Amino acid sequence: MDRDVEIIRSSDIHDIERRIGAATEEGRPWIYREVQNPIWINCIIAVTIIVFYVGAILTPEKVVPFIIGSFCVVLLGGLRMSVGPQSVQVRLGIFDIPVLTLKMEDIEQVSVHQFSPLAYFGGYGIGFNIQMKAYYFRGNRGVKLTSKRSKQYLVGSDNPEVLAEVIRIARRTAGY
C-alpha cells in the first residue's frame, strides 16, 4: 500500500516541527517545499523565448536560436527547494531539473545569510564565487549550507529563517 507524502507548507515553525515529528513517529514520509518564482523573471524568460523562436523562423541559422529559446523554457517555473528526511534539494524550472542535492549527513552547518546579489554573484540566478555556489531568483537573504567537505552553498529563500530551521529539524530528526 502506498502512503501519501505529507507536503508541509507553513511559515509557523512550531507547526512544522510538530508535523515533522508526528510524521516521523508514525513512519510517514514528509517533505517541506518552498518556491522562488518571481513574475518578472517569467516575463523576461517568456519574451526571450518568443524572440529566439521568431529568430529561429526568420534567420537562415535556425538551430542556435531554437536551442537558446528551448533552454529558456527550462527556466520557467523558478527554483523549487525541498527538504525531506534524507536531503535538501534545489530544482529548476517546470521540468524540475535537479541542480543541487545535499544529503542530511553531509551538511555540517546551516545559517541564515544576507548577501548582495550583484556584488557577490553578478546578479540573480545560479551563480558562484570563490567561496560558494548560489541558487536564488529574488531577494538578498538565503540559507547558507556548509558541507562536511567545507563546500558552501547559498539557497535563496523568501523565508530563510523558516527554511534554515526546517533543515535543522530534519537533521535532528535524522540523528545528525
Descriptive account of the structure:
The two termini are 30 Å apart. Helix 1 runs parallel beside helix 5 (160-173) and helix 2 packs antiparallel against helix 3. A hairpin with a 3-residue loop joins strand 7 (125-128) and strand 8 (132-136). The strands form two sheets. The chain has a five-stranded mixed beta sheet, covered by helices on one side. A five-stranded mixed beta sheet has the order 6-9-10-8-7, covered by helices on one side. The chain is elongated. Helices cover 38% and strands 32% of the residues. 23% of the residues are buried. It is an alpha+beta fold.
**What percent strand?**
25-35%
Based on CA inertia axes, which overall geometry fits? elongated
What is the alpha-carbon Rg in Å? Answer: 18 Å
Output the number of helix runs.
5
Topology pattern, helix = H, strand = E: EHEHHEEEEHEEEEH
Distance between the termini: 30 Å
- Compute the average pLDDT: 86
Number of strands: 10
Give helix % range.
Answer: 25-40%
Oligomerization state: single chain
Overall SS class: alpha+beta
Main sheet strand line-up:
1-2-3-4-5
Q: What's the main sheet like? A: 5 strands, mixed
Unreliable parts:
none
Put the structure in a nutshell:
The chain is an alpha+beta fold. The chain has five helices and ten strands; from the N terminus they run βαβααββββαββββα.
